[in-house]
Fold this protein.
Amino acid sequence: MDRRRSARRRLAGAFASAALLAGAVLLSPSQSLAEPPVESGSNEESAPAVDAVHPTLAAIAHIENLNDRLLQVSVASPAMDRTVDVQILLPAVRETPRPTLYMLDGRSAAPDANNWAAKGGALRFFADKNVNVVFTLGGPASYYTDWQHADPKLGTNRWETFLTRELPPLLDAGFGGNGVNGLTGVSMGAEAAMMLAARHPELYRAVGAHSGCYAMSSEFGQAQARAVIGTFGGDPDNMFGPSGDPRWAEHDVVNQAEALRGKTIYLSSGSGIPGEYDGPTNPDAIMFGGPLEAGADMCTRQLADRLTQLGIPAMVDRRLTGTHSWPYWADELPHSWPTISAGLGIG
């Protein structure tokens, strides 16, 4: 075993250990939105759970107005075999159709809030932006992908089908979307965003990924993915099969990077060295978030290098400091927006 491979294996082990030990303090979502919704009991709409003529098609089952712009939309999903909730933030002015940005959460995604809204400042940031913002709810340790098998602990995960086939036409038809889509994800959601963009290049024009790992079939990539799934008691083999299954390579963004040609891409990571938001009052961010972010930084450099090798442009922000924690990702939202908005065609 050569020295570089040995170093990669040690780093993979450190990353896996940190992921297994990291508690809810790093990535668990808040129990309430960053901007509390206004109760509006009379502003609710209902729709049939499934289309009466095409019972296998997804359909909007229920809409609840959390406030005048934030909606909780329940979608009857045949792929997921259940009703799946998402939240949609609409722009203040809705006279013309507009692009849609999907925001994917981290590994501990909860069913009642998305961390981009709860901790990332997204509700406030998008208050004056002409874009529909979709916040996924739920899907912890799912990688927002289609699993081969239902998992005894994590249930049925057919997120790729839900997010790429079932949900977009419903949102475009019901909420003024113009068919232009983008993705932004953090940590687990960063890897998922890049996977979805590479696997469905016709659907997405812009993708932002913060502190993710992208070589899913590599030794390191599998180690971190299996560790993340293991923290929630799931069986990683139910996602893409055992380690030699070709589906791991099919979802490897570094291997499939050519499919990203023509997309507007923003990548970011920190070095893992404690920065301005890390200190004695937040020791877990340093103890666990440091190694996690160091691994993510290595992954980000690997994908950035591959894109450069292929001649595919990307805006890459690798910070000199910063751990795997929300204050840094909240900062990345305005940093990444000029790139993402240009890709979406928003002035």
About this structure: The beta strands are 44-46, 59-65, 70-77, 82-89, 98-104, 132-136, 177-186, 204-210, 264-269, 315-318. The chain has twelve helices and ten strands. Residues 1-12, 14-55 have pLDDT under 50 and may be disordered. The CA atoms of residues 217 and 248 lie 5 Å apart.
